[in-house]
Write a structure and sequence with these properties.
This protein is α/β, with parallel strands linked by helices and 353 residues long. Helices cover 44% and strands 16% of the residues. The strands form 4 sheets. Strands 3-2-1-4-5-6-11 form a 7-stranded parallel sheet, with helices on both faces. Helix 8 crosses helix 12. The protein is globular. The termini are far apart. Bound molecules: nicotinamide-adenine-dinucleotide and 2'deoxy-thymidine-5'-diphospho-alpha-D-glucose (DAU).
Length: 353
């Protein structure tokens, strides 16, 4: 986007990656103003925006609205004021989608539809509003070899990934059918500060700090290319600013694939905790074995990841060590009920990994 400082509507901006995007964009100090619309599900947390709210100049450029992207009466007036919408809002945890898929579809499909309709109304008024749909590498399904290109067929394999694929296909259909200015990002597995402790890295860091077992699914040889959260936010910003309308962009990690066992070893080594905490537990159903992205298209926009995993994992582990109150607050009644449902029977059937 070129021209005067933008007014962005960032949906899901109180979550892990969305809040990083908000913190990083406001820290640029270029006058950009942001409205965050967030439902504050169990994964959303206003404290993720506290660093912005502590700085009077940045705080003056941030407005927080508590609401649902599937609610047209909330979305419409906010899109009226926006130059662009960046949609991070989603139910984001694969394991929860296997237990209870419905919320994934409501936010991931109906919510995206409501946002797109509000954007399309602006076009009808002669005001072009860019729509960024933040999607995921999981839409390609499990990739046994090679690297996914943006032109590859989508083959999602979990309810989470299917909802994400549906959301981005709907967005793309608005570009094709109505000429809506849509761009899509497909990010790799992301890690860093402020990630909810249900996900692999923060779960293993926080459990290890408390000397609790680390439940490693299956043989632990599933491979991911980990992406530091600020690099993911940068990739979304590059696509917002310079992405070609109608195109999708992969956002890969540092290019070094790691099996979950190696990630677990790195967490334990950084904390100085023993491998004996690790339990091999029954696998996630339909577990994708490998994701790998080709990042050529995004690199052509001038983006490159800055944080290698070996540096990022140390920064992440130290952040959790220093922010115990933050993650203890996330381990609320809902989380404990989820943890029991997801892990109690698995840990009963576990073996030394
Ligand atoms: P998160 O679960 O930490 O945050 C999601 C945010 O969306 C929360 O603040 C939540 O309150 C909000 N939200 C959920 N439903 C909403 C609704 N109906 N209306 C308004 N707000 C709602 O997720 P995350 O890890 O930050 O992921 C952000 C986006 O990036 C998601 O779309 C996800 O699919 C995608 N993504 C995540 C990763 C990853 O590794 N975490 C990788 C690639 C893509
Ligand atoms: O690839 C991008 C995706 O990465 C995003 O779209 C999702 O929103 C995000 O949650 C993440 O999905 P994953 O399923 O890959 O992430 P998760 O942290 O849940 O798991 C990472 C790997 O670790 C995966 O192979 C499953 C494994 N795992 C996970 C948990 C929670 C375990 O072995 N044990 C666990 O307890």
């Amino acid at each position: 986007m070129t021209g005067p400082p933008a007014q962005l509507l960032v949906t899901g901006g109180a979550g892990f990656i969305g809040s990083c995007f908000v913190r990083d964009v406001l820290a640029r100090g270029d006058g950009t103003r942001i409205t965050v619309l967030d439902k504050l599900t169990y994964a959303g947390n206003r404290a993720n925006l506290a660093p912005v709210e502590a700085d009077p100049e940045r705080a003056a450029r941030l407005l927080f609205v508590h609401g649902d992207i599937a609610d047209a009466s909330v979305v419409g007036p906010l899109v009226d004021e926006a130059d662009a919408v960046v949609n991070f809002a989603a139910e984001s945890h694969v394991d929860r989608s296997i237990l209870d898929p419905e919320a994934f579809l409501v936010t991931g499909v109906i919510g995206v539809h409501v946002l797109l309709e509000a954007v399309r109304r602006q076009d009808a008024r002669g005001r072009r509003v860019r729509f960024v749909q933040v999607s995921t590498d999981e839409v390609y399904g499990s990739v046994e070899s090679g690297h996914s290109l943006e032109t590859d067929a989508l083959a999602p394999r979990s309810p989470y990934a299917a909802a994400k694929a549906a959301g981005e296909q709907l967005a793309r259909s608005y570009h094709v059918t109505y000429g809506t200015d849509v761009v899509i990002t497909r990010g790799s597995n992301t890690y860093g500060p402020y990630q909810h402790p249900e996900k692999l890295i923060p779960l293993f860091v926080t459990n290890a700090i408390d000397d609790q077992p680390l439940p490693l699914y299956g043989d632990g040889m599933q491979r991911r290319d980990w992406l530091f959260v600020d690099d993911h936010a940068d990739g979304v910003a590059a696509v917002l600013d310079r992405g070609e309308s109608g195109a999708a962009y992969n956002v890969p990690g540092d290019g070094v694939e790691r099996p979950n066992r190696a990630v677990t070893e790195a967490v334990l080594a950084t904390l100085g905790r023993p491998w004996s905490l690790v339990r091999s537990v029954p696998d996630r159903p339909g577990h994708d074995r490998r994701y790998a992205l080709d990042g050529t298209r995004l690199r052509a926009l001038g983006w490159a990841p800055r944080v290698a995993f070996d540096e990022g994992i140390v920064r992440t582990v130290r952040w959790y060590e220093e922010h115990r109150a933050w993650w203890e607050g996330r381990r609320d009644t809902d989380f404990r009920a989820y943890y029991e449902r997801q892990y109690a029977w698995r840990l009963e059937r576990s073996a030394q990994a």
